[in-house]
């Protein structure tokens, strides 16, 4: 019997309330409904970010009946939020079904009514500290802030944040995003603040702003959003980015130019991103099926192949579900030992300080 949307929603809601998971039968119903919808609309998923190229290809191969409509791959977390708001009443191809945003954006999107709850079948293996108890958002992967350096242009690789202030790096240092909108850049500022000894949260955000103001005044900061192309062209010889992005860019550049990636000695910051389904998703069942794929063993290992530590990493390693070659491809484990995982409150406080103070304190129009 074909379930109506109302009957299906009630059945699924009752099931999750009693078990916190989705049964195999419910997954079959979701899959059938998703295939009937025939489309999934994503946003802000560059193929080089966290292995998303392989992830999307894997989803397409498993569900060829579902077209993947990719919106604005280079968008930031704030852009994703605005895309949902702008398309609340639009069921067309410009309305995102799903989002992948920085940790701080999950709770705010829930509070604004922009997300709908859904608990994937592997819910119990997602750490409690990085998921909403009601299933509105949940952590997907994490990495640490790093420097990627064009060795054709930079003779001495900087080892720490303080090094970037040296005169030899004039006109060479960039963030991989606009710190007024990009979660990656916002947390890059937090990491810089931590390196100055500030406590995580508002204090580190303000200290990070002061650091970038100093970097900008010295003439070392470049107001260009860094990516593989700008690194290769010499526009941003030193880029501050998540380690998984830096490693993916290194693969993309394939030695032309040669690059070096370092995790700074201080201010080692771990950043968690989260998934969510738009409350206004035109294809809600395709969105749920996408989530199931992302949090399956296959999806998690594809993220790891893209140099990201997936949410279920510890549970999967314990169960022997992670190929050793994927672990070996990551930076040495010691690089992560000093990593600081900020609390949600600290991330929120930092975000408010950075987005609210960048223009006044730093005054560099990053674009």
Automatic annotation (TrEMBL):
An example Gene Ontology molecular-function term: thiamine binding
Signal peptide start-end: 1-24
Gene Ontology CC: outer membrane-bounded periplasmic space
Highest taxon of source: Bacteria
GO biological process per UniProt: thiamine transport
Keywords for the protein's UniProt record, in alphabetical order: Signal
Entry annotated with the keyword Protein transport: no
UniProt cross-references to SUPFAM superfamilies, sorted A to Z: Periplasmic binding protein-like II (SSF53850)
Protein name (Swiss-Prot/TrEMBL): ABC transporter substrate-binding protein
Lineage: Bacteria, Pseudomonadati, Pseudomonadota, Alphaproteobacteria, Rhodobacterales
């Amino acid at each position: 019997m074909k379930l109506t949307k109302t009957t299906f929603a009630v059945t699924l809601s009752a099931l999750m309330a009693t078990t916190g998971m989705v049964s195999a039968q419910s997954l079959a119903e979701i899959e059938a409904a998703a295939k009937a919808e025939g489309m999934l609309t994503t946003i802000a998923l560059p193929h080089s970010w966290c292995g998303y190229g392989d992830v999307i290809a894997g989803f397409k191969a498993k569900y060829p009946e579902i077209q993947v409509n990719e919106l604005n791959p280079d968008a930031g977390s704030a852009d994703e939020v605005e895309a949902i708001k702008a398309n609340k009443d639009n069921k067309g191809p410009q309305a995102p079904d799903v989002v992948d945003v920085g940790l701080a954006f999950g709770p705010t999107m829930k509070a604004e009514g922009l997300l709908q709850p859904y608990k994937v079948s592997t819910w119990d293996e997602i750490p409690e500290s990085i998921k909403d108890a009601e299933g509105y958002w949940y952590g997907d992967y994490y990495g640490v802030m790093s420097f990627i350096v064009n060795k054709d242009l930079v003779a001495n690789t900087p080892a720490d944040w303080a090094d970037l202030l040296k005169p030899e790096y004039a006109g060479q240092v960039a963030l991989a995003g606009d710190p007024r909108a990009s979660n990656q850049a916002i947390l890059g500022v937090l990491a810089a603040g931590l390196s100055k000894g500030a406590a995580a949260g508002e204090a580190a955000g303000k200290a990070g702003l002061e650091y970038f103001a100093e970097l900008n005044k010295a003439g070392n900061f470049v107001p260009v959003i860094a990516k593989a192309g700008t690194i290769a062209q010499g526009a941003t010889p030193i880029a501050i980015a998540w380690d998984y992005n830096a490693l993916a860019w290194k693969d993309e550049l394939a030695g032309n130019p040669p690059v070096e990636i370092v995790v700074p000695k201080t201010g080692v910051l771990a950043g968690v991103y989260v998934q969510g389904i738009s409350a206004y998703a035109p294809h809600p069942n395709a969105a749920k099926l996408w989530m199931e794929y992302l949090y399956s063993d296959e999806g998690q290992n594809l993220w790891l192949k893209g140099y990201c530590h997936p949410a279920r990493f510890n549970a999967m390693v314990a169960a022997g579900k992670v190929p050793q070659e994927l672990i070996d491809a990551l930076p040495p484990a010691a690089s992560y030992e000093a990593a600081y995982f900020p609390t949600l409150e600290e991330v929120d406080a930092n975000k408010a300080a950075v987005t609210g103070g960048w223009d006044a304190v730093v005054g560099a129009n990053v674009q």
